[in-house]
């Protein structure tokens, strides 16, 4: 069986994304998930958003852990605006 090559993790400078809206960062997380041909589940989007934008999607007290609550309401708003399904 052939080994999969490890994917490079992109570390974005906090200054590039800290002033962007949560909704736009979530849309990017969804885009990154789809570009890797992965099923776009809530867990995958949380993981991608935290992986690429950790300062915005982590717990305030525990910066090494993703906070899925930061995606819940914005995802509902994106659905209401019909930007995602």
Description:
- By secondary structure, this protein is mainly α.
- The chain is globular, with a radius of gyration of 13 Å.
- The model is unreliable at 1-6 (pLDDT under 50).
- Helix 2 crosses helix 3.
- It starts with 13 loop residues before the first helix and ends in a 5-residue tail after the last helix.
- The longest helix has 14 residues, at 22-35.
- It has 4 helices and no strands.
- It has one domain.
Measure the end-to-end span: 36 Å
Order of helices and strands: HHHH
> What proportion strand?
under 5%
Average pLDDT, all residues: 87
Radius of gyration: 13 Å
Number of strands: 0
Question: What labels would you give this structure?
Answer:
mainly alpha; 48% helix; 85 residues; 4 helices; disordered N terminus
Which SSEs are present, and which pair or pack?
Elements: H1 14-17, H2 22-35, H3 42-52, H4 69-80
Helix pairs in contact: 2-3
């Amino acid at each position: 069986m052939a080994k999969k090559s490890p994917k490079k993790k992109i570390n974005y400078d906090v200054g590039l994304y800290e002033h962007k809206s949560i909704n736009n960062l979530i849309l990017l997380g969804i885009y990154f998930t789809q570009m890797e041909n992965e099923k776009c589940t809530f867990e995958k989007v949380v993981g991608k958003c935290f992986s690429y934008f950790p300062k915005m999607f982590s717990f305030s007290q525990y910066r090494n852990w993703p906070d899925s609550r930061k995606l819940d309401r914005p995802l509902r708003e994106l659905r209401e605006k019909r930007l995602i399904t």
